[in-house]
């Protein structure tokens, strides 16, 4: 594996809940390598989602450093974060997070719209992405006209359309049945491996961790252990 | 994010909630309409004043009087109090000076003489005015029959309609004159003469005064400023005055005390090419030491008296537009609550703060713009109705909407939209992406 793309140094994140202070992430350090599929695994409340949000710049850490390609994410302001997300990051969410009024095609092009890519170019790229996720026939359907699996495919297409260096997936299959879950995991890891993109998956499902090169098992805001896997399921695609 | 995408997305968002968008726009329509109609009534009133004043003569003509340096009778005497009054003479040099001033189109001396116009056995009293014939049209004299004087005219008169209808037979006593039928006189064709003998045609007539023959070239409309006037070329008038002086001398009369020196005039009319520059030119002439007045003085006084009314009208319109602006803000704030999640998603997938802000501002601006455009259409219709009612009641409350008012109404409504959308846009911008995305 190549050099590390994300380095997390002694990061903590405290939440204040009334009089109590909860440490969601507590003095955690981790390196994620370029092109690897990294799985943040843990029970609910283990701090895995918070860690993902911190890496993606959706939340600011209470202390510590998060370095993405030599850039300090924790020091970025809102504008810099927007640019960072626009250029380097793709997101897949458990609840798909598609805009309900836009068609599949428009949802996929949205990141390109914010980047100011001209209509024709972005439509071509969106069509390619929809083909890659097997939804070319559904380009003009609205999210409400699609199944959960199809919606997640649209959101995967949207996450990858910018050719981001890292794709974050937060419980990407939480709302899907088992069969669709495997389809989705094959698809997402396949796409990431193909372009040597880094994939960070948050899950509480042990089955999914089979797809990962590395499994980071979390507990109470700390890393319990890290499992390295020789074979990655994604490469079979 | 390109402007095109921004507008497309904004319109789409508004379209999604048609009824609410429509109602918000309706508020702006009502606001715009009321402000435009109120202002248009103010403008309409001013225009009808102007029309009224224009009946008295041209608004673009300044009457300049010489200043003898003694009594200074002027409306702005206060402004000149304490200043030594220099003597300002209206002579050929002064006229040349006026002609060279900016915005001055024509200049003519005005020489007045009260004489009788005679046609057969009938006479009519009239104020005879000698002017530079070339400047007659420019000075705002209008004819309803025949023509105005031109530069080529050496002699010939243009008669006011009221002069013609006041012909009477001087031989009759005044009671008989009252009962007598108005004589039928066609001055354009009948032989017409002028005389400075006030007793012409009566037994007191002075045989030593020779009446002057002259062709009639045109007739000026009755009423207005020139109904009782007779206009002739300056040269012809000067000749008559010379004759009169000669006759007076012969009679042993040494002439009146206020007799003007040769080549000096009591009054000069100055035509200004641009209505908006009349006051400016008038002030310049005053600064030269002359007394000057124009009908714009009267017009301004009239406008001043209705200023308060116009301000109140405008304020009524402004209130409804403010209500509409609050409506826009409310709609946009509501939209943020509904679209919190959407805003979060957009932020997470790379929308900059600027994009979010612009999106909301564009939506608000569009509401303002659409309201403005529909507003001027309804204003146009309202204006028609107001004028219809005004004509029926012969009221001065007419409505007039100039093009600039249409354009600035749309621009203003759009600006109001943007301003109303600013606070909501700021809120949308500040939403935390993470919290927003977790909102259900």
Automatic annotation (TrEMBL), chain A:
Residues 6-237 form the ABC transporter domain. It comes from the Bacteria. Pfam families: ABC_tran. GO terms for molecular function: ATP binding; ATP hydrolysis activity; transmembrane transporter activity. SMART domains: AAA (SM00382). The keyword Cytoplasm does not apply. Transmembrane segments: none annotated. Keywords: ATP-binding, Nucleotide-binding, Transport. One of its GO terms (cellular component) is plasma membrane. Coiled coil: none annotated. The keyword Nucleotide-binding applies. This is Putative ABC transport system ATP-binding protein.
From TrEMBL, chain B:
InterPro entries: ABC3_permease_C, MacB_PCD, Macrolide_Exporter_MacB. Keywords: Cell membrane, Lipoprotein, Membrane, Transmembrane, Transmembrane helix. GO terms for cellular component: plasma membrane. It is a multi-pass membrane protein. One of its GO terms (molecular function) is transmembrane transporter activity. It comes from the Bacteria. Residues 315-432 form the ABC3 transporter permease C-terminal domain. It is found in: Cell membrane. Belongs to the ABC-4 integral membrane protein family. This is ABC-type transport system, involved in lipoprotein release, permease component.
């Amino acid at each position: 594996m190549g050099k590390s793309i994300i380095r997390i140094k002694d990061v903590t994140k405290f939440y204040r809940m009334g009089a109590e202070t909860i440490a969601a992430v507590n003095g955690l350090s981790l390196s994620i390598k370029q092109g690897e599929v990294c799985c943040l695994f843990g029970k609910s409340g283990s701090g895995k989602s918070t860690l993902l949000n911190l890496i993606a710049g959706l939340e600011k850490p209470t202390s510590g450093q998060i370095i993405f390609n030599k850039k300090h994410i924790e020091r970025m302001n809102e504008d810099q974060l927007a640019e960072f997300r626009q250029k380097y990051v793709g997101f897949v969410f458990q609840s798909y997070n598609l805009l309900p009024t836009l068609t599949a095609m428009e949802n996929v092009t949205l990141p390109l719209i914010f980047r100011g890519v001209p209509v024709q170019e972005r439509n071509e790229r969106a069509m390619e992405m929809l083909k890659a996720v097997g939804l070319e026939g559904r380009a003009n359907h609205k999210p409400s006209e699609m199944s959960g699996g199809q919606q997640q495919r649209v959101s995967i297409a949207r996450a990858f359309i910018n050719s981001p260096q890292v794709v974050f997936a937060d419980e990407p299959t939480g709302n899907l049945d088992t069969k669709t879950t495997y389809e989705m995991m094959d698809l997402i890891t396949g796409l990431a491996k193909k372009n040597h993109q880094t994939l960070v998956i948050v899950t509480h499902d042990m089955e999914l961790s089979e797809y990962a090169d590395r499994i980071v098992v979390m507990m109470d805001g700390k890393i319990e252990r890290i499992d390295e896997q020789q074979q990655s399921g994604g490469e079979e695609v | 994010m390109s402007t095109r995408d921004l507008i497309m997305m904004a319109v789409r968002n508004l379209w999604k909630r048609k009824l609410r968008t429509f109602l918000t726009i309706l508020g702006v329509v009502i606001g715009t309409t009321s402000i435009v109609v109120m202002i248009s009534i103010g403008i309409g009133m001013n225009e009808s004043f102007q029309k009224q004043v224009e009946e008295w003569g041209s608004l673009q003509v300044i009457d300049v009087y010489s200043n003898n340096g003694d009594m200074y009778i002027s409306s702005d005497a206060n402004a000149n109090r304490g200043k030594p009054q220099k003597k300002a003479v209206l002579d050929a040099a002064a006229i040349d000076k006026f002609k060279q001033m900016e915005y001055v189109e024509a200049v003519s001396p005005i020489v007045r003489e009260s004489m009788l116009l005679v046609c057969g056995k009938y006479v009519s009293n009239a104020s005879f005015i000698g002017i530079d014939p070339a400047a007659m049209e420019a000075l705002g004299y209008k004819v309803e029959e025949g023509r105005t004087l031109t530069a080529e005219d050496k002699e010939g008169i243009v008669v006011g309609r009221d002069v013609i209808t006041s012909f009477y037979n001087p031989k009759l006593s005044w009671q008989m004159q009252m009962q007598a039928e108005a004589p039928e006189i066609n001055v354009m064709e009948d032989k017409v003469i002028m005389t400075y003998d006030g007793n012409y045609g009566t037994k007191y007539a002075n045989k030593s005064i020779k009446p002057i023959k002259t062709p009639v070239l045109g007739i000026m409309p009755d009423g207005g400023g020139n109904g009782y006037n007779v206009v002739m070329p300056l040269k012809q008038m000067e000749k008559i005055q010379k004759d009169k002086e000669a006759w007076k001398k012969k009679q042993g009369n040494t002439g009146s005390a206020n007799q003007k020196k040769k080549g000096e005039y009591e009054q000069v009319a100055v035509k200004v090419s641009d209505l908006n520059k009349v006051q400016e030119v008038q002030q310049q002439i005053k600064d030269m030491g002359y007394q000057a007045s124009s009908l714009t003085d009267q017009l301004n006084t009239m406008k001043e008296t209705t200023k308060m009314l116009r301000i109140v009208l405008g304020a009524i319109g402004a209130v409804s537009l403010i209500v509409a602006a609050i409506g826009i803000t409310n709609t946009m704030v509501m939209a943020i609550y509904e679209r919190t999640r959407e805003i979060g998603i957009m932020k997470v997938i790379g929308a900059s703060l600027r994009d979010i802000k612009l999106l909301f501002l564009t939506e608000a601006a569009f509401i303002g713009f659409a309201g403005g455009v529909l507003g001027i259409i309804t204003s146009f219709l309202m204006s028609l109705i107001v004028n219809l009612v005004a004509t029926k009641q012969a009221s001065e409350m007419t409505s007039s909407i100039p093009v600039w008012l249409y354009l600035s109404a749309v621009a203003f409504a759009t600006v109001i939209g943007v301003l109303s959308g600013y606070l909501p846009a700021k809120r949308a911008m500040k939403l935390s992406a993470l919290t927003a995305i977790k909102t259900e």
